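Key result, reporting period 2: structure in, sequence out.
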């Protein structure tokens, strides 16, 4: 929901730099996250459990459906899984909780802008997710006996793109999520579409051609193409351009949808 015109005029104009406000919001959110042991455990332990399941699943696949190998498929899919689990599913619950607790409403009457409020709430989860991706990038190749990322620059771009889309889609999904308890249900459709169709839990090579063509248009598919290219170094320039355009289109759509429909006050 967009802010009424009168609300902006009533907002006090602070002198603190934007970075300082973001840091303060991030520290406050980190404190709240630390007090919620269930959410903290979910953010820290669930990605590891999903990586174990992913490794078990791809190990049993036919070699013809998995030309990159089980180890590489685990690293490519695991990178996306970490980001979607921690940022998309976790942040949807966070935004919903802060909305229902009137935290977002109170913050909007102070110095931070709407964007700063949303980004500040996402900072702790983003730091956790990026740290886990860093651990996977450094330790995964040695553990799974696969080469290090062939194109670290493309891998970094892919990780940042998946992270940004996850945060935006989390804000959007929270608008249709009534309570924290129902966040698991409201995030399930997009989560399942992402992990099965964007090359996370199910490698793209294992999908039928017709299904794969449709899945190429999913929100995370373009960003995951950069993750895949970063690990394997096999994507052509044309594929990367197409992936970049798709990611940009989804980013614009998501940003506009959040601006229009994000809910700042409790649902009644």
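The corresponding designed sequence is given below.
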């Amino acid at each position: 929901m967009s802010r009424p015109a009168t609300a902006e005029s009533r907002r006090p104009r602070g002198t603190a730099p934007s970075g300082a406000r973001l840091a303060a919001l991030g520290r406050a959110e980190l404190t709240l996250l630390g007090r919620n042991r269930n959410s903290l455990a979910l953010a820290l332990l669930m990605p590891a459990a999903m990586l174990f399941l992913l490794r078990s699943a791809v190990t049993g696949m036919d070699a013809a459906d998995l030309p990159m190998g089980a180890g590489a498929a685990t690293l490519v899919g695991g990178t996306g899984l970490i980001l979607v689990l921690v940022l998309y599913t976790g942040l949807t619950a966070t935004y919903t909780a802060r909305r229902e607790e009137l935290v977002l409403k109170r913050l909007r009457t102070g110095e931070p802008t709407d964007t700063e409020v949303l980004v500040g709430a996402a900072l702790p989860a983003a730091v956790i997710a990026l740290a886990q991706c860093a651990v996977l990038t450094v330790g995964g190749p040695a553990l799974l006996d696969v080469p290090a990322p062939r194109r670290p620059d493309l891998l970094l771009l892919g990780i940042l793109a998946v992270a940004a889309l996850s945060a935006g889609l989390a804000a959007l999904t929270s608008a249709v999520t009534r309570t924290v308890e129902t966040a698991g249900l409201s995030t399930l459709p997009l989560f399942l579409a992402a992990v099965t169709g964007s090359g996370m839990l199910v490698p793209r090579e294992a999908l039928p051609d017709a299904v794969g063509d449709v899945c190429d248009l999913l929100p995370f598919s373009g960003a995951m193409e950069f993750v895949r290219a970063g690990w394997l170094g096999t994507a052509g320039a044309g594929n990367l351009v197409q992936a970049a355009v798709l990611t940009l289109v989804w980013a614009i759509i998501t940003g506009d949808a959040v601006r229009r429909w994000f809910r700042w006050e409790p649902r009644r």
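Confidence is low (pLDDT under 50) at residues 1-15. The chain is about 75% helix and 0% strand. This case is discussed further under Risks and Mitigation.
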